[in-house]
Amino acid sequence: MNPQAKADSTLEVEGTKLTADTEALEVQEEASPPVVEKLTDYSNSDYYINRELSNLQFNLRVLEQAANEEHPLLERLRYLLIFSSNMDEFFEIRVAGLKQQIDFSREQVGLDGMQPQQVLNEISRITHESVARQYEMLQEQLLPALQEQNIRILRRSEWSEEQVQWVSDYFYSEVMPVISPIGLDPAHPFPRLANKNLNFIVSLEGKDAFGRETGMAIIPAPRSLPRVIRFPPELSGEGICFTLLSAMIHQHAEDLFPGMTIKGCYQFRLTRNSDLILDDEVEDLATALQGELQSRRWGKAVRLEVADNCTPELANFLLKEFGLTQDELYEVNGPVNLARLMDLCNLPNLPELQYQPFTPSFPKGLMPKENLFDAITSNDILLLHPFQSFTPVVDLLRQSAKDPHVLAIKQTLYRTGAQSEIVDALVDAARNGKEVIVVIELRARFDEEENLTLARRLQEAGAIVVYGVVGYKTHAKLMMVVRREDGKIVRYAHLGTGNYHAGNARLYTDYSLLTRDKDLTNDVSKIFQQLTGMGKAVRVKKLLHAPFTLKKGLLDHIQQEIQHVEAGGKGHIIVKCNSLTEAKVIKELYKASQAGVKIDLIIRGICCLRPGVPGLSDNIRVRSIVGRFLEHSRTFYFANNGEPRVYASSADWMVRNLDHRIETCYPIEHPKLAQRVKKELDAYLQDNCMSWQLQSDGSYRQNQPRANQPRRDAQMQLLIKLT
């Protein structure tokens, strides 16, 4: 990151600053802090950070990557666009939820004590600043830098005569046949516009063929049309040239209203509430969900984005039409649908502008296409994706589908992708006569429709498909293969921290454990029985599982660390997960800190705990890693007085995961594997390049190497070590 970018990379958050520091950040020393009075009122709202504002701060850390010149240029653009996508979901779900609380007079005050309207006001302030910064980055940093690389998104004023003619031909052949302008008059009321779709509001002058003088019209851009169009090579000179669909529509807007004069044409986009609410009493979850999906595009408006040259009169007209206020209006200097530019990040043959590709490795002794049953029988196999290949997980299913000794396969699916090798293998297994039972979570947000399609495909192949437990999302990542060997039944299992999604396994960090441990596979079998059948909570031996024993188990482990310290020993807890919001867990961590337990939290996103508060959380450090890969693995380390306990889990430390989802947490028992996980956690704790430190005031500061200190990028270290 250049000095100017660093100096500019500041945003006000909760009255504090999110800063990419130019100076080295001193990592908290391990020496005992001075003795201070212990704080005991754990209900004090000052001890907690607001959930939504913490979520927003994670998105701001993603945005800051777009200014970081250590990333290749197209990857910086990708971060900028990911920020847009993240903010879309933030408004569709989180902001919509807050507004809904107010509308229905069901305000909920969190641990931090902020009322929903207070949170919305703060979100509005921060997001207006951050969106302005985002478009400033785009227009003043990224687009000029791309132009230096001969990659240009041309404005209409920059088109050559040949390009103008090509655009005209393209518009009349590809756009005009599918576009439907809508004049506004008593017979044509304001149209119902879909969530996040590109639209134009047009100011008109004159009368149409019927003598109507409407004054205004709406042009919805068809969702089937690409938003970024590439000029042919012969019209691009030495580089690569694009234009935007919005520019084409602007250029030919008058052609859509023959005989009338266009006084103004401005792009806008509406964001709606997209959360799905299903009654726990529904008789058929799949049918009920299908009905809800149809309404997702038409939820209540929560945000309006318009081009910054839109007249105040038209902007206010739109606000009134959608029932929004000025605080919910975002005027942007560029395309209103930035996330649709993502194809630019994947341009081929530009290696210097993208991350260097890599090939995920296989663990020592495990070769591709090897008989996985023999390999797993020899030793448990622990994989860390994306550095190590996801192929063994897929191959276990493929081999099981064909193996005559395999009797049954059981699998949970949360997100798996439309073109899934996992599903292909399950279909083959069912067609080959195996007993295939698949627990599909239909309510995986924004993947519901895809999961319904996968469910139908599996059912048609002969698999038994169940939808988990109504009221509890099935978020556990479990696979079990039942095989007959030497006349006995043997179980093999895969337990993961991430989804069965081969694409995500190249982008997300996650652990996979392949095992035939008798107790562990027996526990997995019991979980499947509970998911597909009915009965009392099952008793398991090694697994912790939500909503029954996981939270209690975690609290017990924290309490044991406290007891070790109080008995004169040392205590150390390392937690790596995506979010930390659960009140009882946070309070127990505060107690552990007060007792002298050293606590290191690696929390990618939301963290409601305040570290470094004297007398409360002096011994707690919180950091967030934002790098090339999305940190997604959940791993927990408890020192246990010299006999460490190491776990991996599908669950974050949130209320929804610990109380309202089906989750599993499994031990890493082999000493070498447990030691390996600890070393990999240590690498994240030593990162001084892509890590951000949470301050006691709620702000984040980016860690930088101190003088004469080597650069440590945990993800790159793991990439080098494991591949």
Describe the structure.
This protein has 18 helices and 29 strands. Strands 16, 20, 21, 22, 23, 25, 26, 27, 28 and 29 form a 10-stranded mixed sheet that branches. It folds into 3 domains: 154-343, polyphosphate kinase like (2-Layer Sandwich); 372-538, Endonuclease Chain A (Endonuclease, Chain A, 2-Layer Sandwich); 545-722, 2-Layer Sandwich (Endonuclease, Chain A). The longest helix has 33 residues, at 116-148. The protein is of the alpha/beta class and 723 residues long. Helices cover 34% and strands 21% of the residues. Its cofactor is Mg(2+).
Number of helices: 18
Strand residue percentage: 15-25%
CATH top-level class of the largest domain: Alpha Beta
Helix content: 25-40%
Q: Spans of 5+ residues with little confidence (pLDDT < 50)? A: 1-31, 278-285
Mean pLDDT: 90
What would you say the CATH architecture of the largest domain is?
A: 2-Layer Sandwich
Task: Give the end-to-end Cα distance, rounded to a whole number of Å.
Answer: 27 Å
CATH topology of the largest domain: polyphosphate kinase like
The tally of structural domains comes to: 3
- CATH superfamily caption of the largest domain: Polyphosphate kinase middle domain
General form: globular
What's the story with the biggest beta sheet? 10 strands, mixed
Based on DSSP secondary structure assignment, what is the total number of beta strands?
29
